[in-house]
Structures are given as C-alpha cells and as structure tokens.
Amino acid sequence: MTASDAVSTPWRRASLAGALFALDPIGSGLLLRSGPGPARDALMSRIVTDLAPMRLFRAPADIADDRLIGGLDVAATLRAGRPIAETGVLAAADGGVLAVAMAERISTGVAARLAAALDTGEIALQRDGLSAVLPARIGVVALDEGRDDEAAPAALAERLAFWVDLDGVGWRDIEPPILSEEDFAAARIRAPRVEVGQQASATLVAIAVELGVASPRAVLFALRAARGLAALRGVTRVEDEDVELAAALALGPRATRMPAEPQEEEEEPPPEDEADDTETAEEDNTPRELEERVLEAARAALPPGLLAALAAGVQRNRSGASDGKSGEENYSLRRGRPLDARPGELSKGRLALVATLRAAAPWRRLREGAAAQGAAIQAGPRRIIVKPEDFRITRHRQKRGATTIFVVDASGSLAMNRLAEVKGAIELLLADCYARRDHVALIAFRGRTGELVLPPTRATARARRALSGLPGGGGTPIAAGLDAALGVADQSRRKGQTPLIVMMTDGRANIGRDGEPGRPRAMEDALDAARRIRAANVAALAIDTAQIGASGRDDAPVRALAEAMTARYIKLPRADAAGINAAVRGALQR
Amino acid sequence: MVNPFPFSAIVGQDDMRLAFMIAAVDPSVGGVLAFGDRGTGKSTAVRALAALLPKIRVVAGCPYNCAPENRAGLCGACTGEAKPKAEQRGAPVVDLPLGATEDRVVGALNLERALAAGEKHYEPGLLARANRGFLYIEEVNLLEDHLVDLLLDVAASGVNLVEREGLSLSHPARFVLIGSGNPEEGELRPQMLDRFGLAVEVRTPQDVPTRIEVVRRRNDYDRDPEAFHRTWAGAERKLRAQITHARERVASVETSDAALERATRLCIALGADGLRGELTLIRAARAFAALEDVPAIGDKELKRLAPMVLSHRLRRNPLDDGGSAPRVQRAIEEVFGP
C-alpha cells in the first residue's frame, strides 16, 4: 500500500490515526468528531484492543472537580478517623487513556484541567484540606458529537494529536485492521528507538506554515506520528513517506487555509488573518520536492468545509471565540446549570445540604471538644455540629447577556444607496454591544443566499472588520437572510443566551427561498420567514433603510415584515445612534 | 518535574523572557501576565524560571519562608524567636491549580489533627508557601471569581488574614503573581488585569527558521531531558549569575529627574490612570538597567518597557482593531521623538 492509499479514505485516515494514538498515547490524544454509529464503535473498540494492556477510562463532559481532580472522601475519612482522599478520574487514569463523551460540551474549565494533565503528566490536588501532586500520565480521546459550530474547546483540541472526522462513514466503509496484534506489540517496543532526521522537522514546519497551523505542538505531534509510522512499518528510521503521512494525519486536519497550488504559488491571496507571507519560498534548505509531496498528502486530509468556509470569507472557528465560555458565564444563584457548591452566606443562596454536612463532618470531634468545654451545647454522640462557615450554597451557571444578530441587506438595491450608511449605523450599535459585553453575529444576504459572515463572537472589532469587507450587489433574498438569522438565534439560545435579531433592509425582496427571482413570491417567503421568527419567540428589530420620497418608495414592505415578526420598526433616516440604541435596549428588555 | 525545560533554551519570546527576568530581579514590579496564543511556551517559561531563581535565606522550618534579617515582616511563629536559625531554600514557585478550593489557598485547620486528636492547628495554604516567591496561575482567566477576589486582596496588602474555625491569624504573603492564559477563552476582569505590573502578549513566531528551532529544541528535550540539560547548563549558569548580579545592583541604579519626567509624560500622554503606571515603569526600567549592567535609567530602557508596563492599563477603545500597542508606540514617539 502506498502512502497516499493509506490515507485515501476517511476510514483509513481514522484507523491509522487511531493506531498511531494507541501506539503512543501518553500526553497525546485523539479528537474523534462523529455522531454515535458503527464506524465510531469500530474505531473505539480497535483502539481499546490496541491499547492493551493500557486501560480506557471514561468521563462525562460535565464532570465536576471532585470527580475529576479528587477530594476528601468524607465517609471513609470519618470511618478511619484520618483524612482519606478520593482519587479523581485524572489520577485514576494514570498510565491509561481517558475518553470524554460529548466533548463539544466540555467547559473551558474542564478543558484546562485536562490540558494541564496532558502537558505535565501530573495533577495538582489542592482541595478540601488535601495537598498533593499526583501522577496523571494520560492520553485523551475526545468524542466530539458537535454539529455546525459546536466543537470541543480549542485548548483541549490543540493538545490532541489527531483530529478525525467520521461523519458520513458507515459500516460498509469499515476495513479490517492491517496489522496483527503481534506486529502492533512489536511496533510499540520499536517506537522509542526510531530515529528522525533534522530535515523532517524543517519540512513539517514549512507545511504547517503553508496550512496556516500556528502552534508548534502540531508539528511536534506530526514528528511523533512520523516515528510511530516508521515503527508500524517495522523500521527504525523515519523515511519521507512517514513524513508525508504524518503531515496528512497531524497537520492536514488543522489547516486554517488552503495551501497554494504548486504552480500558482504567487497568486495565493494572503489571508487577512495571517500576517505572515509564505516564507517557505525563501527557505532553500528545504528540498521543494519532498515538501510538495508532503503537502500533497496533507491536502487529502484537509478539514471538510475548509474551502467553502474560506470562500465565504469565514474563518473556521475551531479556535474561534464561540467556544470561549468562561468569560460570559454568569453565576446565578437560582437558575441555570448547577455548579459545585461553594461557601457562602445563606442570605445569598439556597443551602446545599449535603455539601454543608460534608464540610461540617470532619470537624465533629474538634467541635465536640470545644462545645463540651464551653458547655454551651449538649453535644450528643453522632451529632454533627454545623457552624456558619460550613454553609455551602448552590450556584448555577447561567450564560449572561445577549447575542445580537445583525441581518444586513447587502443587495444591489441597497448597495447603490445606503450600504455605507447601514454600516455606519451598525458600527454605532457595535460599540454599544461591546459595552454590554454582548455577542454579535453578522449575516449578510445578497445574490441568492444569506450567509453567516461572522458567527457569534464577543470580538466586536472582528465584527467591524467583517462589516467593512462586506461586498454589495445582487438580488435581495430576505427570506434566506431571516432563515439564517433564526438558525443562529436557535443556536445561541441553546447556549443559554438571549438572541436579538436586528434586520436592516429596504424590504424589496426579489429572490425567494428556492433562489429563484420573482417579487411576489420572494415577499411571501420573507413574510413566512418573519413569522417563523415570531413563532420561535425571538426578539427582533426592523430597521428600514428605504429612502423616503425617492422614486415613490414606501415603508410598507419593511413594516409588513416587522409586523410579521412583531418587531419594532425604525426608519433609518430618523434613527440616529441614540435612537437605535434605545430601541435595541428596549427590545432586549422585552 | 525534575528537569524543566531550560529558560535559556526558549526560542524568541523576548518580551516574555525579559518580563520574567525583571520580576526575578525586583519582585516589587508587581507580577507578570503572559497572555496569548496556545503553544507559545508560557507555562514552560514559568517552570523554567523556577530553576533560575537564586536561593533565599529563611528562618529554619518556617512555613512562610520568613527572612531572618527582616524582623518586622516575621510571622507569628518567628517573632517569638530571639535569634532564629537560618537556612537556604530554593525560592518558591507555587502553582495555584484551577479547581483549588479556598481552604487550600488561604490555609485552614489541619484536617488530620482535627480528626484524630480534636486539635485546632492551622495548616498553611498555598499563599503561605508562595511568600517571598512566585505564585503561578495557569489559565488565570478561568480562575473562579471568589478566588480572584481573595488573591486581589492579599496581593494588594501582602498579608493573608485567616478567619475561620475560630482561628484568627495573619501571616505575610508577599508574592509575585504570574498569570498565563489565552484571551480567546475568556477575558480577565479589569481589576485583575490592573494588578499585574507587566503584561506581555505572546504570539506564535511567524518566521520559518525560528519555528523550526522551536520544534527541534522541544523535540530534543522531550527525547532526552537530561542530555538537553547538560547542553544548556552553561547558559543557565550565566543567566542565573546575571540575575543575582542585577539584584545586588538594582538599588544603586540611578534614576535621573529627566527619566522620571519622561516616564510621567508618557503616562499622561496615554491617559494611564493613577500613579501605578509611572511607578512600575521606573521600577521595571531600574531592574532592566541592572540586568544590562548600565548605571542609570536611559531612554532605551523606558522605550523598551513602556509597552509591557502600560498597554494593559489603558482604557480600551472597543472598536480599535490594533489594540493598545500602537497607541503606546505613538505616545513613545511623541515623548521621545521618532
């Protein structure tokens, strides 16, 4: 089998990545993006077989600190009369692999703890009066079932060597393993002795630059993969084909931009988000031939949708801000997802009874002594004395704030006259969104579709950049724009935020849902989309950008749309910054 | 970790390395925040720094690392001693891990003794251990709010007040706060941001030779840490000597009125609130001059350090793409001329 055959199908890539991970899992990982299904089951069971005698442990995505890191085992402590620690999953999995289910739901906090264990091979326990550094040399398999923008946190993904996508791989695609168990065992013994030349790292760095992969970790993982591949082939020296495959497996899926085609390198437009040029051209100590072959191999494993995303001007959001959950969390005392109980005054929240008793229990003996001395309380045997400092209150995690979704008409009818003005108005709103720490998303509709130019982010500066780069012209598919907005609104609501749709259009819909031109049909579709927004109970604001008086335009279409989605209606000429802001605020408070 | 990656072997990241060295020379600059891209060696640098710090003289057996010569700053236990015995100890670099509970941070009753004997005995926490050293918080932006509040309090006063379980005591807790994190995962509260004397932005190096060197060194280190250490032992020794020497010299570095005036004008030009900016700038520049072995603070020192001292203290303009770095640059040109 040639190098390119080995990675020619998603299943082959996945099974090879799985084998490489199982060969050398500690401090590494596998990001397995796929819904549950036969392919995922087959891959996981193969990994478990390959890992032996190492074990696979499992953890849920929303694991709490006392289970993840460990803490005081109160029952055992009271029985024994001395502190007994409860081992957390990280320490328990030492020397093995931890599989985290529903990795797309991992909080940034849990991701950071996993990342620390992957980086250092240790876990620091500083909890419940216990202080220890426990070994936690683990590998991680993140089972990411995310759809669309949902993804495992970037801090974790970055530390997992292989990113595998099994979407669309069915049981028919599954092939039997190439290596026998004995061969695999032999490869594991061989792996530490595999030599790798200096050239390999230079080539892999060059490829990483070409693919827009910034982190040195990715290259180190690729080097490690190359060594593993050599070991699997039964040799102790990394050859070019290993480097090719390693790039395909460890670098390709992380690509954030399309590599240049070999012949038309100069024409590669520099991506906006990367300041560097393709310096590879100046690097003459790297043989171009090998580099190109490696790049070719990596090309086969580029992330799905990368081209489309880049063409649409969207930055792939693996490392984007949408998964940054921590900053916008709001610790509410009554609503949201429950968190660990924490010390606090009773006036500030509900008593967490079990946690309070747990906190009080270890001190029983001490307090009985004190109580007997003071003779204030008649402390019976087996009675737990609870003091104010034991009180634990429950807290809940609630996402703060709103996502303001701008749906901007960038069609020809608007572009001619008012696009600049609309942009100006949005900029004013953005400043306000920043002040409120809102998320903003930007959808532009023109031509035949509505596209998400900017997924929800708190980086208003990015929104501004996306806005200023917005091209205008083409048809006016209002329905498509509103449909896209509702999609984003649904998503942000699932994340616990309050969506607000701000539509800016002159209301002259002329492209229907099916992408066909035709005014009456287009308006019907647009009204239907607007009604769906009302049905979903999403707050909305309609800003009419049609010019008054000029060529007899009137405010009827936008008014109709506003009515259909029970949105507040504002006319742009009269809407100065303060007016719009007040309207947005009003809509949010509704 | 027995053999951390050597500080001298870190490729590039000049700002971050300089900031750490300055904090090692003069802890009063008030901590370092390293914020930026993943995989740029932020944590590596902090762990490497621990190996560079000169040893400190402490009262033997003191859990708070009290200095025997500093009578005023001694903890309750040490003040009782007429002539405390001294010993050398490695300067502490204490990790405050995410998920730490409050009792371990501030200290609490010793659980074992309370359980077994029913005795009240204070068990010092991480803040005690970090006294006269460094307290490192990886992913500081993810730290629980109530711990952040607590740290701010202690960092400002240098004293840890413990009031729990009928215990009432205080102990010195002067430490250099070092935080690292990635802004994409959540921003730092402004109050916390302001507490760091120096803030450096770390970015992935963009040129290919540097990146190759990063990968090579890390790869060599991972494969054989001991051999790697031997290779870099000389450079490490030199760096340690540089820090030790700078510590001795820092007090005698001259601060001219002209330098003071320029620092002040810089802060005014940038509208940096309060006096903390000027103070930190002068202190950091003094430490830098000591590291460079020059007798007085000059323009070079001020210009080099102004961005890391001032850029995180500016009021942010939400729609300014470039962030505060260009603003600082403009102000520098205004004050010092192009």
Tell me about this structure:
The complex is a heterodimer of chains A (590) and B (338). Chain A is an alpha/beta fold and 590 residues long. Chain A folds into three domains: 3-262 and 286-308, P-loop containing nucleotide triphosphate hydrolases (Rossmann fold, 3-Layer(aba) Sandwich), CATH 3.40.50; 339-396, no CATH class; 400-589, von Willebrand factor, type A domain (Rossmann fold, 3-Layer(aba) Sandwich). Helix content of chain A is 41%, strand content 17%. In chain A, strands 17-16-15-18-19-20 form a six-stranded mixed beta sheet, with helices on both faces. In chain A, strands 2-5-8-1-9 form a five-stranded parallel beta sheet. A three-stranded antiparallel beta sheet of chain A has the order 10-14-11, with no helix packed on it. Chain A is flat and about 80 Å long. Chain B is of the alpha/beta class. Chain B has two domains: 7-54 and 91-202, P-loop containing nucleotide triphosphate hydrolases (Rossmann fold, 3-Layer(aba) Sandwich), CATH 3.40.50; 251-336, Helicase, Ruva Protein, domain 3 (Orthogonal Bundle), CATH 1.10.8.80. Chain B has a five-stranded parallel beta sheet. Chain B has a two-stranded antiparallel ribbon with strand order 2-3. Chain B has a two-stranded antiparallel sheet with strand order 5-6. Chain B is globular, with a radius of gyration of 21 Å. The model of chain B has no long low-confidence stretch (mean pLDDT 86). The chains are: A alpha/beta (590), B alpha/beta (338). Chains A and B meet through α7, β6, α10, α11 and β12 of A and α4, β5, α5 and α9 of B.
How much of the sequence lies in strands of chain A comes to 15-25%
Q: C-alpha Rg of chain A, in Å?
A: 29 Å
Instruction: State the domain count of chain B.
Output: 2
| CATH-derived topology of the largest domain in chain A | Rossmann fold
Largest sheet of chain B: 5 strands, parallel
Outline type of chain A: flat
CATH class of the largest domain in chain B reads Alpha Beta
